Amino acid sequence: MKTFRMLITLALFMAGTVLWAQNKPGGMYYQLIWSDDGESLLSENDLTLIPHDGTFDFALTVRQADGFVAWVGSDEIDVVRVKDGHIWYAHPNKNYDFELEIIPNPVDADGEILQDCVRVIEHIGDSGSPYPPETIFSGIYSHVIPTFTDEKGYLYKMRGEYGCELIRGGFYTDKVILPEKVFNWFGEEVEVYGIAENCFADSYDVTGVTFANDRQYAGPGAYVGTLIPYDYQELPKPYFAYPNAALDTFVVPAGAETSAPESSRQWVVFKQNAAQGILVADTHADEDKDLGRADFDFDNNQGFFFTMPDAELVKDVMFRGYESYEIETLVAPSEYVAHHRFPSFSRWKYPEAEREAKSYVTDEVQARYPGHKVMYSRWIASIRQGAGQGEFSMVEFEHQDGRAMVVFVWEDSAGELSMGDLQVDLSEESEEYGVWNVDDDGTYGIPDVVTIALDSQEHVTIFVAQNSPEAIECYAWHQVDNRLEYEGYGSWYRYYP
C-alpha cells in the first residue's frame, strides 16, 4: 500500500511538472542540424523565448559550420504578432516574403504534446528568403532545462539545486526589480542569487536595479550599455589582495586606518576571471598581526580575508599557469564589477622573452614628450583576439636634469593612444637608478597587469602590481580622454621566514 501511494504521489508530481512545462514555454532552446549521413554537424541553432504581457519576445540564432551566422528576433518594430498562441515573425524587408511560425507546446502527428519543446516552421513566398538556401530555421527545438522565465519576462538559469541567476536575454526595461524567490520550470520555488555576467549588456532601456536583499549580487559587465547611472569617481573602488598557497582564500593587507568593505560579498578578480568572494575574517585593526605580504604565515596577516564558495571549481581556470606567490588579485564590490567588463588578455610573464613597444608608439611618446631620449621600451599586455582590441606598453627615458621618467601607453581599439607618466627625483640616488627596480645585470623589471577593466565607453582602467624583492607597489591607470591618470594604492612589504 505504501509503495502504491508513493507511485500515486510521483504520478501527480510528474503530471503537475508536465502541466507547468506546457503552460510556461519561456526559456532557452536549441536544435542541432546534421547532414543526411549523420556524420557532419551543419549548424547549431539557439532560440530564446520570452512570454510577457500577453505577447512574446524571441531571438533565434543559426550558426553554420562554414562560419555563416543568421539572426532573427523581435527587436525590430512590427515584426511579431501572436495568433492562437503561435508567434509569427515577418522579415522587416518587404522585398522578401519570409515568415517564421514559432509554436510553443507543439504536438506530434498523433496529437501528443512534445514535452519541453518548441517547433519552428519557415514560410517562404514567391519573393524568396533573404538567407542562403542552406540556412535552416525550421525544426523541433529542445528546452535547455536549467532556464526559465517568470511572469515579467525575466530570464533565469539555475545555479545548483536551490538557486538561480537572472541571465541575458530576458525582457528587461526601466527599473529591474529582482525578486527574492521565483518558481522554476518544474514549479519549485528557488532563491534568486543575483544577476549574471553581462546580463543587461546593451539593454538600453534598463535604468536601475532594486535588490531583494543584500546577499544578491550583480556580475561582471551586468550594467554595461544600460542607462544605470555610472560615475567612475563615485564608484566604490576595488582592493588589491593576494592568495594563500591553496588558492582558496585571499587577504587584503590593511591596517586600522583602512575602511572595511561595505558588503561582506565581493568579487575576486584576476585577469579576465571573476568569482564570488565572501568576507570570513577581519583582522585589520589587530596590530599584533603582520601588515604586508607574508605568504609563509598567511593567517597572521593584518587585513580582510575572503574565500570563494566554489574555489575548487574555479581556481584551476582562474589561476592556471601561476603559483600563489606570483599572484595579486582584486577584491571588488558588485557595483564596480557590474559597470565594467574584463576582457581576456595576454601579459608579459617571466621567463617569456621581453618585447619592445611598437615603433609608432615610441615615436608618439617622443612627440608628446619632446626633448627626451628613449632609454628602453617594453610591451606589457594586449587584449586577446575575440575580446576586443587594446595594448599596454611602457617607455622609459634616459635620465635628465636629475630625474627619471617612464611613460605608460594604452592603445585602444581605434588606434588612439592615451598616456600617463611617473617621475622620480634622482638627486640623492645613484645615476643607475630608474623608475623601476634594476637587477645587478641591468635587467629592468616589468609591472604585472592584474586585470584590465573597460566601461561602457571602452575607457580603460589597468590595475598593476610592480614587484620587487622587498615590496609590491600596487596602483592603477584610469583613462580620461587621451590621458592615463595615476591612482595609487600603496606598497606592501614582503616578509620572509
Sum this structure up briefly.
With 497 residues, the chain is mainly beta. 9% of the residues lie in helices and 41% in strands. The strands form six sheets. It has a nine-stranded antiparallel beta sheet, with no helix packed on it. Strands 10, 11, 12, 14, 15 and 17 form a six-stranded mixed beta sheet that branches. Strands 18-19-22-21-20-23 form a six-stranded antiparallel beta barrel.
Task: Name a few traits of the molecule.
497 residues, mainly beta, 4 domains, nine-stranded antiparallel beta sheet, six-stranded mixed beta sheet, 4 helices, 32 strands, 41% strand, globular
Q: What would you say this structure looks like, in words?
A:
This protein is mainly beta and 497 residues long. It has four domains: 2-143, no CATH class; 147-218, no CATH class; 234-335; 345-493, no CATH class. Helix content is 9%, strand content 41%. The protein is built from four helices and 32 strands. The protein has helices spanning 2-23, 311-318, 334-338, 359-368, and strands at 27-34, 41-52, 55-64, 69-73, 80-83, 86-90, 98-104, 117-124, 139-143, 147-149, 155-159, 163-166, 174-177, 181-183, 189-195, 206-210, 217-218, 239-243, 249-253, 265-270, 273-282, 303-307, 329-332, 345-347, 374-383, 391-397, 403-411, 417-425, 448-454, 460-467, 471-480, 483-493. The strands form six sheets. Strands 4-3-2-1-9-8-7-6-5 form a nine-stranded antiparallel beta sheet, with no helix packed on it. Strands 10, 11, 12, 14, 15 and 17 form a six-stranded mixed beta sheet that branches. A six-stranded antiparallel barrel has the order 18-19-22-21-20-23. Strand 3 (55-64) and strand 4 form a beta hairpin. The longest helix is centred in the N-terminal third of the chain and has 22 residues, at 2-23. The chain is globular and about 90 Å long. The N and C termini lie far apart (70 Å). Mean pLDDT is 89; it is low at 1-22.
